[in-house]
Specification:
The complex is a heterodimer. Chain A is α/β, with parallel strands linked by helices. Chain A has 18 helices and 13 strands. In chain A, a hairpin with a 7-residue loop joins β6 and β7. In chain B, α12 crosses α13. The chains are: A alpha/beta, B mainly alpha. The interface between A and B is large, with 52 and 46 residues.
Chain lengths: 374, 436
Amino acid sequence: MRADSSLFVRAGRKAGRAAGRRTARARRRGLAAAALLAAVVTAAQGQTARDYISIVGSSTVYPFATVVAERFGRATRFKTPKIEATGSGGGIKLFCNGIGVRHPDIVNSSRRIKPSEIENCRRHGVDDIVEIVIGYDGIVLATSRKAPPMSLTLPQVYLALAKRVPDPSGAGRLVPNPYRTWADIDPSLPAARIEVLGPPPTSGTRDAFLELAMEGGCDAFEPIRALDPGERLAACHTIREDGGYIEAGENDNLIVQKLDANPSAVGIFGYSFMDQNGDRVRPIAIDGIEPTFDSIADGRYPIARPLYFYVKKAHVGVIPGIEGYLREFISESAAGDFGYLSELGLVPLRDRERLRMLERVETLEPLTLSALAP
Amino acid sequence: MSEPGPVKPNEPPRTRDRVAEGLRRRYMKERAFRLLGLAALLFGLGFLAIFFVTLVSNGASALLQTRILLDVELDPEVIDPEGRRDAVALETANYQQLIRDALNRLFPDVTERSERRALYRLLSPAADLEVRELVLANPALIGETRSLWLLADDDVDMLIKGNIDRDVPESERRLSDAQIGWIDALLDEGRIERKLNRYFFTSGDSRDPELAGIFGATVGSFFMLLVTLVLSFPLGVATAVYLEEFAPRNRWTDLIEVNINNLAAVPSIVFGLLGLALFINAFGLPRSAPLVGGLVLTLMTLPVIIIASRAALKAVPPSIREAALGIGASKMQTVLHHVLPLALPGMLTGTIIGMARALGESAPLLMIGMVAFIVDIPESPLDPATALPVQIFLWADSPERAFVERTSAAILVLLAFLVVMNGIAILLRKRFERRY
């Protein structure tokens, strides 16, 4: 690092000399610029301690983590943690980049960390990671309140959104999705054009939707079960690109507003947005079950997933306040049944699970690769 | 003008007759052309008007915040049961309890636990902060009963502002029928009023919309622009002066010129990636710091300033340089004493316009971690901070309904800054520009 900055000064001097052939003024200016840059670089390196918690990760967990961070900052003498919404994948990459104040302490994730990511972490010296489950999030399919209520099954969702589906004539092969209206799939559904507004591929919500809804739906079809695993995954996870599925950006609010303007469309977004906008949009029951706190918490609603965050054990005790932040997140008043996170739409853990997480916060028991094995 | 006579059938038509014939059509074409231009202008202005009307109609209500008048008894038993009156006791006292007691006195018939919880939710979870502030500022008030206008919850605020529909079924509303009943009772007593929303202008980000403000983002933007200005103005002007006044005209300077023009057109996200790789990964500067943001924006603004400064230098007529050289000034004296002062207004205009662009930039900040939730107001360019356009982006993405109006209000504030900066640029040009 020191070598870096002295190199810089040397380069600056060289530049200064070149200019100096013209005027002395220019040389002084060149030197001043080099000195300034060198000063900036050394000043930043001199800042070895960080007195706030640095958090990155999922934009789904962001609304919950920020509230906890704010309360934590207000209630304690510690600074309010800094939270960046980078997406789960991007966040884990930053998190695994190393140990030290330059790297984040905690990563929020809307999916479980992958074994390959843990290996990447280890390569960079991040050995002990503590996994905390904070609650559940349901992925909601919804229409405008102006449209008549709708109910779908997972196979119907798959048929409406996949790029290739089993031949409707029963020939047992996959054909490009022939369904244009919901009534084409099942005559009992409305005769409206299939128009689904959903998250883009960078989103953790999209990953979870593919895994839980699309994969859950496509297994109902014999021709797909007959495929080998790689092809099966491709058939289940490929969304149609002919205009039936519209990528509406990461902004769930925008999807809600678009549904309001276009009553025939269906939107896909997180349960917390459903909870806040119940007067504008109406959830679609999946397999006959409406998304509610209870149906998501007890696992009856099929498109629900746990939300996580991961903590670098090596940073606990070094960066001030991490222990307190963890305790606040899992406390009864935050993640409990009637905690403030549930008011924001996070579906709380069952008490037994929460107590287990609380214990993990105290013991900081690290995650092992074998725990990730399916 | 004489009337053209009747045209004789055999005589060939004279030129002026042919012109007179086509004249009407030519005038019509000209009018149509002018109308087309006017229509294009009106079209653009129309959209601008729609944009402003939507923003103002959405955002104006964010300037006011609903408050509820409560008679809070600053009960010494609750605040400081041990009677020590020291700072720790006063800071950590349960001020929420005082507010709850005040609400209970107003609605004595609400006794059931869940109903009481619903009643307490009418007030912001941060309402107690204001009571705390009051007591900390003046501990002598303990024991008195004060009438305080306390911060209402964002849902109450939205109802009062008409953004929550009372007519939809109770289960689909954020407020229950009972809560709306209490609000109406408070309204009848004149205990609900809209007051100036001071938090919007004095605080940082918050997940409680009633506490969220743009001050933190404004300070972040200020530090960033400061770094950008300090670095890019001298560097840009020096480059322009060298290239325009000293550099020889050859293939190298041509190449440099092409590259500078190219850099001015590079999408800003690319500068963000460069900043991430260079300043954060290679130099080890902290993420989310306005210093790094300023450095990245410097890279982005430099070409703009260089181009504007070179244009300003080019506009100084050669006669001025020749006259100075003619009476014996050195090359450097010519530039510093004569050319630079004449070109400076143009350079400043270019700089201000470049800075205005930098102020509205959010894409490169995404890469260097300034898209973040930051509550504390940054105190130096090394503290984590966010910027105005990023704050707008973050609020636009928040689920709470009350952030809609705050997003619009924040856009208005950003626009106001931009208008002021561009106004200064125009003023500078008007006052100091010289024509030769």
